[in-house]
Amino acid sequence: MTNGLMHRFGRLAASVAFGLMLALATGCGEGDSTNGLRLEVDERLPVQFGVFPFLERGELEKALAPLTGYLAAKLGRDVRIQLVADYADLERLVRQRRIDIGWFSPRSRQVGAQGVMIPVCRPRTRSGSYQGLIVARRASGVTDLAGLASGSFAYVDRGSKSGFLYPNRVFVERGIDPLRFFRSISWAGNHETCVRGVLDGRWDAAAVTSLVMKNSPASVTGSLVVLATTAAILTDPIVIRDGSPGLGRETVRSLFSGMASDTEGAHVIASLAVSFGIFGFDAMTEADR
């Protein structure tokens, strides 16, 4: 450490020490305590909104900006998006209680999230669901799953319904054991990486959500062929952390379910309809969970 740096550090330490002594002296002295120094801390911490990045990070943040802005205005608190790396990362943040509101399905009781994150409403789409798709590059000439034998394949994440769980059910129905059928299996981390990897030849095929295909330009969708489609998957619910300060279950449920009838909220819904095909939010009861 240089002499100049040591001198500046010493002056800083002395200033801090003097400030503490002054605060103690004024706080402990007799007379009107309002004349003393007070340290005020803003307890209205930002609301952490957790989302799995089913689209490219920048695109997803931009698409969700109207929603988080609306929530911030209504709650009187900053709302920050937490885009997780994968479902394992999401589970870690849930367990650490570092997510207050989220757009995802809580995991099973065995992994500890059920009961911590409580579903309060579900996004309303025209069909009420989406599908998982198994796609390949159209130029490859592959037209069915059998044509993928000994090829390379990419899943999204072990926790992804459309990017792993439901496509695997399709393989089971077709008598395919992916570990034996494919030459190699990779984990892409999100749906758009799967799509890009298929297009650039990194993988012969991949499992993706129908939502990413719906939001992709024609130049992308036209270059892919859908080899199989899964059963319908319910859209992920909006969830809140049980016991999150200032975020009551009924408050959040009413905020989302009443959004379409609010003037500012209607503009948000219009934006979500373009980005995700969401036309509102329906309150969930205990029986819906």
Textual characterization of the structure:
By secondary structure, the protein is an alpha/beta fold. It folds into two domains: 136 residues, D-Maltodextrin-Binding Protein, domain 2; 105 residues, D-Maltodextrin-Binding Protein, domain 2, CATH 3.40.190.10. It is built from ten helices and 13 strands. A six-stranded mixed β-sheet has the order 2-1-3-12-4-13, with helices on one face. Helix 2 links the parallel strand 1 and strand 2. Helix 2 runs antiparallel to helix 10. It is elongated and about 55 Å long. The termini are far apart.
Describe the SSE topology:
Layout lengths: L2 H26 L18 E5 L5 H19 L3 E5 L3 H9 L5 E3 L13 E7 L5 E2 L1 E6 L14 E4 L5 H13 L4 H4 L2 E4 L3 H9 L5 E5 H5 L3 H4 L2 E6 L3 E2 L3 E4 L7 H9 L5 H14 L4 E3 L6
Parallel strand pairs: 1-2, 1-3, 7-8, 7-9
Antiparallel strand pairs: 3-12, 4-12, 4-13, 5-11, 6-9, 6-10
Elements, N to C (H/E): HEHEHEEEEEHHEHEHHEEEHHE
Radius of gyration: 25 Å
How many helical elements? 10
The counted number of beta strands is: 13
Q: Give the N-terminus to C-terminus distance in angstroms.
A: 59 Å
Domain count: the total is: 2
CATH class of the largest domain: Alpha Beta
Approximate strand percentage = 15-25%
CATH architecture of the largest domain: 3-Layer(aba) Sandwich
